[in-house]
Every structure is written in structure tokens, then in C-alpha cells.
Design a protein that fits this description.
By secondary structure, the protein is of the alpha+beta class. It has two domains: 73 residues, Glutaredoxin (3-Layer(aba) Sandwich), CATH 3.40.30.10; 105 residues, Glutathione S-transferase Yfyf (Class Pi), Chain A, domain 2, CATH 1.20.1050.10. It has seven helices and four strands. It has a four-stranded mixed sheet, covered by helices on one side. The chain starts with a strand and ends in a 14-residue tail after the last helix.
């Protein structure tokens, strides 16, 4: 399998992490979306949406969207509960991550720490700070009283939210404000086989 992605990207970290945790070998193809690599004709032929991650399976099948890949490779493993309410709760957190969390925490990190363009996006960063804090508040309400986002063991919901939360400080979020989230980050990091994102650096 070939996984096209950016090593600094949380969305690309997710499929790399679930593949490693479930014992799947893959080739990493570094593809920098910030430099325009995802808009080339060759890349658009693989993913017309022009985004990473993209996973090309051994038979040529193409998978896109990081949380879809989490679901695909977690099927039949302890990382995804069987059909029922617990699985529905996992889906809730996956949708929350892409709609209410990633667009603010990941975007703030990209602008501040990767592109170093905070001075150009004051209004957008103010919105990211407000909406990102709201997302962390939601997580705090769960994690202040429970070790994991769903049930009593880690699931792909934890992987999805960990991806950008553990580097949230690079987007201006001090996790000391959310101690339940901070302690959960430490628990996820302690899981055997879990890796962390490289710190963002300017291109």
C-alpha cells in the first residue's frame, strides 16, 4: 500500500497510525499540500478533491478521508466496537472531530506554526481560538470523568481527536486550561505503538 501524506499533518497521521497499530505494511509518499503538490494533474488523477491523505491499496483501490480510513482498518479489531450504541458514539466523535475540532485547532496550528502567517489572519485566528476552545470544552466534559472518549478502552475516536489535540499548543491552545484533556493526551501517548506528530516548522 502507498500512503500519500504530510508527516506534519494530523489527518495524515491517523491512517499511518491505525495501519501500524493493526500490523499493515505501507509505503509513505511525502506530499506537501501547502506547496501545491496535491493540485498536480498526477495527484488529482488519484484524488480529484486535491487533499491528503490518500491511500492506494495493493489492488489499486483508492481510499480518501482520514476518518474513513480509521474505520476501514479498525473493523474487527479492539479499536472499533461492534455495531451498536458504542460504535455510534465513536462515529459521533469522528464527525465532531472533522466539523467542530479540526477546522479550528488544526487550521490555527497550520497558520501559526507551519506557515508562520499569524499576522495575515488575525480575524480567522480569533475565530479558531473561540471555536477551538469550545471543542476542547466539549472534550473536557467527557474526559474529566472518563479515561477514554468511548467506553473503558481506547478506540479510533481517541486516535482521531489525539491527532491535533496533542499539538494544540502550536495553534495557541494551552492544555493546562483543560486538565482532563491534558491527562488523556498523556494516556494516549502511553499506549504501545503510538507515535506523535513532528513539531511544525516553517517551509
Amino acid at each position: 500500500m502507498r500512503l500519500h501524506g504530510m508527516r506534519v499533518s494530523g489527518n495524515c497521521w491517523k491512517p499511518a497510525q491505525i495501519l501500524a497499530l493493526t500490523g499493515h505494511a505501507f509505503e509513505w509518499v511525502e506530499t506537501d499540500g501547502n506547496s501545491g503538490a496535491t493540485r498536480s494533474p498526477d495527484f488529482l488523477a488519484i484524488n480529484p478533491n486535491g487533499k491528503v491523505p490518500v491511500l492506494v491499496l495493493d489492488d489499486g483501490t483508492v481510499l480518501v478521508e482520514s476518518n474513513a480510513m480509521l474505520l476501514h482498518f479498525a473493523e474487527g479489531t479492539p479499536w472499533l466496537p461492534p455495531p451498536g450504541l458504542a460504535r455510534t458514539r465513536v462515529h459521533e466523535w469522528l464527525f465532531f472531530e472533522q466539523y467542530s475540532h479540526e477546522p479550528y485547532i488544526a487550521v490555527a496550528r497550520n497558520i501559526i506554526a507551519w506557515r508562520r502567517e499569524a499576522h495575515l489572519h488575525a480575524d480567522r485566528l480569533a475565530e479558531c481560538a473561540h471555536r477551538g476552545a469550545q471543542a476542547l470544552d466539549v472534550m473536557e466534559r467527557r474526559l474529566a470523568a472518563h479515561p477514554w472518549l468511548v467506553g473503558e478502552a481506547p478506540t479510533i475516536a481517541d486516535l482521531a481527536l489525539f491527532a491535533y489535540t496533542h499539538r494544540a499548543e502550536e495553534g495557541g491552545f494551552d492544555l493546562a486550561r483543560w486538565p482532563g484533556v491534558r491527562d488523556w493526551v498523556a494516556r494516549v501517548q502511553a499506549i504501545p505503538g503510538i507515535t506523535t506528530l513532528p513539531r511544525a516548522t516553517a517551509t
